[in-house]
Amino acid sequence: MPKMPNQKLKLIYLSRIFEERTDRYHGLTLSDISAALGEYGISAERKSLYDDIEALKLCGYDIKTVRDSHVRYFLDTHKFELAELRLLTDAVQSSKFLTPKKSRELIKKIGELGSKYDASKISKQDYSANRLKTDNEEIYSNIVAIHSAIAENKKIRCNYFEWNAHKQRILRKNGDDYVISPWALCWDDEFYYLVAFDSDAEKIKHFRVDKMLRVKIIDEKREGESSFSDFDMAVYSQRVFHMYGGEAVNVRILADNSLAGVVLDRFGTDVTILNHGDSFEFCTKVMISPTFYSWVLGFGNKMKILSPQNIADEALKIAKEVVESYE
């Protein structure tokens, strides 16, 4: 009997059928499998399908059978479980640095990592439409350029913007280019940040990737290696509030016991704590910034900066200004 066309692709298409059309709740009979292969222009005899399924099992495919009125075959273990796909989808949906268009594209691709039944469940739970999202469509090409620059040990050139009260983009530095050395990318507070070394300022800075425009790799070696020799992104994220830069200072704070969970969530369980009955002190290093003061003052009389004195005085000044604004 002459060989039918596409037979060399048979196992490839068969594996695709199991991945896309079956799971532990949905199986296929041999007749179903044969019909599915026919959609790809491949004919399959019953005996050959037994051999093909065994070959896939030898390759690591977790194919199992269930017997009801018919014998059905299904792939019991996919690369991603539905719960894992939902976690990835939730991350995409909550990411403010992704545009609505890119969010939809990624969610569709995530759904394709499971069976078609998983994909259907994922698509029905797309809640990203009304979330806060960036409108910067350059972000993907920017991320590619940044990763390439880090891999090639090169600097990048870009523009950086802020919004004004008229919802207009205003370029920083009067539109002049930033030339910086990229070292790491960090996802914090639902935004994506580049942590880089600014040679002009001679210090580490961070930039919101969705506010970067026209990112280009330039043929200059990165600088700042000594500043990043013992750099720990996890520690850096703990010290910086919403990635708002400032001077790194050791502070001592008094807090009500009800805020223990808040403090540990913010600074981790390694933070030093001294108990005082109904309250406790903790010491940590933070970047002093408006968002740090807002974080402390947001807890009212349940949190108080003890030292350094100049930091405590500045918090008192801000609190008084807030009160005066309401009088």
User: Rg to the nearest angstrom?
Assistant: 28 Å
Residue-averaged pLDDT, rounded?
Answer: 85
| N→C terminal distance | 95 Å
What is the H/E order? HHHEEHHHHEEEEEEHEHEEHEH
Oligomer: single chain
SS elements, strand count: 12
What proportion of the residues is helical, as a percent range? 25-40%
Poorly predicted residue ranges: none
Supply the helix-strand structural class.
alpha+beta
- How many distinct helices? 11
Q: How does the major sheet shape up?
A: 6 strands, antiparallel
What does the overall shape look like? elongated
What does this structure look like?
This protein has helices at residues 10-21, 30-38, 46-58, 82-94, 100-111, 116-124, 139-152, 233-239, 260-267, 290-297, 309-326, and strands at residues 63-67, 71-75, 154-163, 169-171, 178-188, 191-198, 203-208, 212-221, 247-256, 272-276, 279-288, 303-307. By secondary structure, it is an alpha+beta fold. Strands 3, 4, 5, 6, 7 and 8 form a six-stranded antiparallel beta sheet that branches. It has a four-stranded antiparallel beta sheet with strand order 10-11-9-12. Strand 3 (154-163) and strand 4 form a beta hairpin. The model has no long low-confidence stretch (mean pLDDT 85).
Could you give the topology of this structure?
Blueprint: H1 10-21, H2 30-38, H3 46-58, E1 63-67, E2 71-75, H4 82-94, H5 100-111, H6 116-124, H7 139-152, E3 154-163, E4 169-171, E5 178-188, E6 191-198, E7 203-208, E8 212-221, H8 233-239, E9 247-256, H9 260-267, E10 272-276, E11 279-288, H10 290-297, E12 303-307, H11 309-326
Antiparallel strand pairs: 1-2, 3-4, 3-5, 3-8, 5-6, 6-7, 9-11, 9-12, 10-11
